[in-house]
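HUMAN: Spend a minute on the protein record below and explain its fold to me.
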Amino acid sequence: MTIASAALSRASEVRTVRECPTCGLFQTVPALAPHTGSTCRRCGTLLRQHRTDPARRALALVITALLLFTLAATQPFLSLDLGAGRNTTLLGGPEALEQSGLAPMAFVVLATTLLAPALRLGMIFWVLLRLHLRRPRQALPHHLRTLFRWAEALSDWSMIEVFLLGVFVAYAKLIDLAPVHVGLAAYALGAMMLMMAAADATLDHEVIWDELVPRPQLARAIPPARRIACEGCGRITDHEGACGCCGAQVQRRKRHSLSESWALLIAAALLYIPANTMPILTVIQLGQGLPSTILEGVVELADSGLWPLAALVFTASILVPVLKLLGLAYLLITTGRRSRRHLAVRTRIYRIVEAVGRWSMIDVFMISILTALVQMGALATVIPGPGALSFCAVVLLTMVAAQRFDPRLMWDALDHHDPSAATRSPKVTS
C-alpha cells in the first residue's frame, strides 16, 4: 500500500461531525472499524461506510471503465439487417433525433449517454490518480476539489444502465422487422456499467474529501444551533456563502425549495397529458403505419409475448411518472403544512422518488435507437412523435423537482418541537 493509500485508509478512523443529508441532524460519527458503517439514528440514512482501500481499487476500476467506454463510443452496439445493413453508435441516436426536428431531446440523449458519463469518469480518474501519485506533505491543486464535486453532481445524469435497458426494448421491437445483431459496444457498455458500480461501491467519498481538504477540528466547537454543512464536501461552518473548501454555495436550507419544486412539478403534470395522449413514434412498413402512444407500445410488446419487457416499460414509463408526481405532491403538501406525522414514511417516499426517476428515460433512449436504425424509406421507417419530447420533459422536470426538494424541511417541524433531537448519536452497523 502506498503512503497516499495508507493515509486515505486511516481517514476512516477519525471521529467527525456530520449533518444527515436527509433529516438535517448533526451527529458525531465515531471512528469506524473495518467493514462497518454509521447510519443516522433518526432517519436511517447512511452517514459513513468504512472502506479498507478507498481509492486505489476504485482507480483501477475507473481506468477499466474508461477503456471500455472508449470502445463503446466508437463501435456500433446494434445492427439491423434489412436490405442494406444499418448500424448505430452512441452518437447515432442524437444525430437522428436532431435531423427529425427534436434537437432538445437529441441533446438530452447525448448528455446522458456520452457527455455526463465521459466527464464523470474523467474527473474521478484525474482526482484519484493525483491522490495516488501524491508525495508526503505535497499540496494538492485546488481544481481537484471542483472536479470531484462536479463528478458527484453528475452521478444522477450518467445513465448508461438505463440506456442499456432501452437497447433491450429496442431490440425486442426490431426483431419483428429484420434480423438484429448485438454489436461489441453493447457488451462494452454492460461491462463498463459493472465496473462503475464496483467503483462506486468501493470509493469512500468522504475520505477523498478529507484528503483533498483536511477537515478542520473547529466543527465540534461551533454551537449546534449555528452549524451549517456544505452540500458539496460536507464541511461544517457557522456562516452561509461560498464554501472555502470546494466552492459550493453553503446554505442552511435550499432557498425557495418548496416553491421551485411546486413550479417544476406542476409543469411536469401538465406535460404528462400530451406525453401520454400524443404519439411518441410512428413505424412505417411498406408505406403503411400508424402512430402509437406509450400505452399502445406496451400493448404491442404484450401482444408479441414479451410480457417482462411490457411490464418493464409500463412500470418505467407510466407507473413511475405517476407515482413520482403523486409522491412529490404529497411531500410538498405535508412539508408546507409543517406536518410532524409519518416522517419516517415520508423519508422513504423521498428516497424512492429520487432513486427511480431516471429509469423513466428507457422510452426516450428506445426511441432514439429506433430512429437511428430504421430509416429505410418506404420499406421501413421510424418517425419520432411530439409525445416523445413531452415525455422527455416530464422525466427531466420530475428529476429536477426531486433534487430541488430539501428533505430536511420535513424534519424541521420535529426539531422545532424537540430541540433535544440534535444531541443524538448515530448508529454503527456492521
